[in-house]
Design goal:
The complex is a heterodimer of chains A (260) and B (329). With 260 residues, chain A is of the alpha/beta class. Chain A is built from 6 helices and 14 strands. Chain A has a 7-stranded parallel sheet with strand order 7-11-6-1-4-5-12, sandwiched between helices. With 329 residues, chain B is of the alpha/beta class. In chain B, the strands form 3 sheets. In chain B, strands 1, 2, 3, 4, 5, 6, 10 and 11 form an 8-stranded mixed sheet that branches. In chain B, a hairpin with a 2-residue loop joins strand 1 and strand 2. Chains A and B meet through helix 1, helix 3, helix 4, strand 7 and strand 9 of A and helix 4, strand 6, strand 8, strand 9 and strand 12 of B.
Amino acid sequence: MKIVVCVKQVPATTAEKRYTADLRLDRAAAESVINPLDEYAIEQALRLQEAGAVETVAYLSMGPESAAEALRRALAMGGEEAFQITDDALVGADQWATARVLAAALDKLAPDVALMGMSSDDARGSLVPGAVAAIRGLPLLSYGAELQLTGSTARIRRLTASGFDILEAPLPVVASVTDQVGEPRYASLKGIMAARRKTLETWSLADLGLSSEDLHGAALTRVVEARPPEAKAPTERVENLGPAEAATRIADWLTARKLI
Amino acid sequence: MSNDICFLAEFDGGAPARSALELAAGAAGLARESGGAAVALAYGKGSAAGAASLGSAGASRVVVLADTDGPVIALAAAAAATLRDDAPLALLAPATPNGRDLAAALMGLLGLPALGPVRAVRIEGGRVRAEQSTLQGTVITVSESAPDAPQPVIILALSGTFTPLEGGSGKAAVTTAPPTDAGALGAARVVESHPADAAVANLEEATVIIAGGRGVGSAAGFEPLHELAAALGGAVGASRAAADAGWVPYQLQIGQTGKVVKPALYVGCGISGAIQHRVGMQTAENVVAINKDPDAPIGEFADLFVVGDLFAIVPELTTEIRRRKGMTD
């Protein structure tokens, strides 16, 4: 049994962000981390490996050369090997192109489970898992609070408004998980040392049998404008009022905005 | 190709979900600008019987994909066949787990451009343009499909992006999608369902959210928040700290690893407003914060920041709102 965890390098949540002159995020300018949601996918894969349900955990990332750092960090948490897709033709890739490229790489790696975080922290579209499943013609088990593997089937526990459901599909599958799978581990010093000796293979688009034309350049979408958010009205502060007076002030504020 | 605006219309418990009513209004508005029709792709139990009712919500045509519950991604092949026939200008999809999965499968199957979650959509010179708040709200971008990209462009919309029509009287023509083999995307099935004693509110559809954080202190501490939510006709949400502590179910968690919400009113009680929470609620239209720490970060971005004890203020506020609304026990 083999799991490939898809990992995206994103700007740190608290990092300052800038756009380049051609309206793309200046990824070089911001401190980068493993997408926080992907860390849960890594944790889920490693827990399944520790429980003996999985032999191999590998990582796959598409991004600039510097994204190798995210893969090294993942390997320091555990797992055996990593694959990076990097190509100048992928600069500015949108969700469709990303899904197309990951699908081609996953076809090559042929894991039993392609596992992803439920969303990326920078764009928050959550479209890549479903699109990869559709492109590869595989079942999707999404938004899992837990992934279980038994024999030839995969199961997820998905929280619903009224409890939880268990969803099941025959392997191989594409799956995504939430932060309910358990807190991601920290890389130990030993893990960091071991990661340096693990295989990290780099692929170009051509290695996947894809060309820039297959990807409509690198995107089916384009950004036509990027600007800072509008300055908002200053916060109205209410201090040193008794509870009843404070409540009246809030109610007046809500009434003035027709919210009551 | 057409200038139609399609939208995904989910039915829940036999009636259109709020997202369906919001997207119907959004699609109707855009269709007026594009010179096309607002077309619903309806699914979920009750969608066959209720399809015509989407007319008063803004739809002029409804295609019923399937009158069943279950993983919505299984309907991707049927939806793809419908979209291939019409090639509408845009497809609006709710930014809910089901809506995103179906939209994602359509993006993959048909090779379609996708944008969102958006905060506004408009048509300029015949092109659909979407405004997004990205990178934790640090940048506003306007995007569109690339030249020569196929139609439709998929637009993910958070609940609250469009306002449902009121008193609409339109009639919608209803057709049923021909049966389509779902293929592998239909292979994921719900094999067990474990309902809880009490269902939690669907935060993604709430227009008023009363959220509690670390400052609420306990499960019992959420009781006054529930009472305030009831008085305002809203739902209770929480920060990750409160959900992790087990004071509320995880489904109520708002933020980076939880839900992203866009209510008309958000009231944060005992929530500090760390970036991880902020990214889940920063597009709320009105933000009120009650916190006893005058230096809490939420005081930097709330519209109204009340420094004080939530346990003293919230019950008084509930009483005052009930009085103004003429509510009695």
